[in-house]
Structures are given as C-alpha cells and as structure tokens.
Amino acid sequence: MPTARDALLDAARAALTTRPWPAVRMVEVAAAAGVSRQTLHNEFGGKDGLARALVRRAADGYLAGVEQALGTAGGTGDRLAATAAWTARVTRTDDLVRGLLTGCWDGRLPGPAPSAHRVRPPGSPVPAQRTADAGPPTPAELLDQVRDRVVAALDDGGRPPGDPAALAATCELVLRLALSYALVPPSPGTAGDGVPLVRDVVERAAGAVAGTDRGATGAEVT
C-alpha cells in the first residue's frame, strides 16, 4: 500500500504526461491521490516543494537502476554494458532523468530553478522533503556519483592489476557515450533505439579495462 507521499508523487507524475507543470493544479493532484490538499501541503509545503520531490525521486530512481544494472551477472563488460544500456534507455523514456543528466529542461517540466534565482526553502518537518529541498545533483555531480558506483562495483580485485584511474576514465567514457543517445537520438528504426550499439561499444571498451583485446562477450576488438 503506497504512502500518501508516494501516492501524491505518482499522481503528480501522471499529471505531467498530459499537461505542462505550470498547468498542473494541486487540488487535482490531491484528488487523484485520494488525499486532502492539506496532506499535500503537510508533505511538500506547496507546489514548489512537490516539484523538488519529483526531481529528487527521479534522481534516486535512476541511481537505483544503476545499482540493479551493476548487479547483473557476468564480468566487467556485462555490467558496464548493462549500466550504459540502462542510462541510454531511461534518458529516452524519462524526461526528468534526461533533464538531470543533461541539464536540458524545458518549460513543461518542474526542473530546478537557475541557481541565481534559487531560494532556500525553510526546513521541512518531513525528512524526505528536507532531502528534496536540498536540491538535485547537477549533471556533473550525478555523473560522478554513477561513475564512483561503477568503479566500486567493478574494481573488486577480480581483474588483472591495472591503473584504477584508467577504470574510472573508461567508466566515465561509457556513461558519456550512453548520454549521447539522449542528446542526439538514433535514426528512426534503429534496432533497440540504439541500445545494442551502446552495448557493443561498451563491451569492446571493457576489453581494454580488463587488460585483454576482447570484450566480455568475446567480440574481438577491431
């Protein structure tokens, strides 16, 4: 059974599929969630707080997906490829995650306000809202968080000795490659929306990380 907070976030996210954020009304969000408008204000403090919570949940959901991808069975190439594929896929399907990772927000989204105009809200009595009110990570910060998670998961002593900095650099390269599909989508009709190509390139790059000339799936590097 979802909490009132989760129900409100789900209702607000659903409203975004049919109208821009400026047109979303709080009374409608509360009604769709089956709670009072007062409950909405208790949880989020108002529409701005709800917007911050939506963006924070998108960031947390993306990072949870990264953790799941890193739990994929297989070697370095498999897990790097799974992380890249998840990043490429979610940035194509979730406009909030795409905004978080690229910094490209349009007026229909509840994106973060420009730093020059951002006003720190008063402390919320709700712990989850205090986290949301702190603001989302910048694209560079989020990329760093993902890179560090990938490095920690892959640099587990099971691969040949090498330069940890090289692993970090390769992980960042992989993530930036995946993000390129958010900024410049593949041509219509491309198999898997370009994800198979991302996986292939990542698996080849993983061969260099592992100190071999073959990717995790055995594809020779050309």
What does this molecule look like?
The protein is mostly helical and 222 residues long. It has ten helices and no strands. The chain has helices spanning 4-16, 26-33, 37-44, 47-70, 76-93, 95-102, 127-133, 139-154, 164-183, 195-209. The termini are far apart.
**Content of β-strand:** under 5%
Task: Give me the strand/helix succession.
Answer: HHHHHHHHHH
Helix content: 55-70%
The largest pleated sheet is described as:
none
As residue ranges, the low-confidence spans are 212-222
- Derived structural class: mainly alpha
Beta-strand segment tally: 0
Mean residue pLDDT = 81
For the record, give the distance between the C-alpha atoms at the N and C termini, rounded to a whole number.
Answer: 52 Å
The number of helical runs is: 10
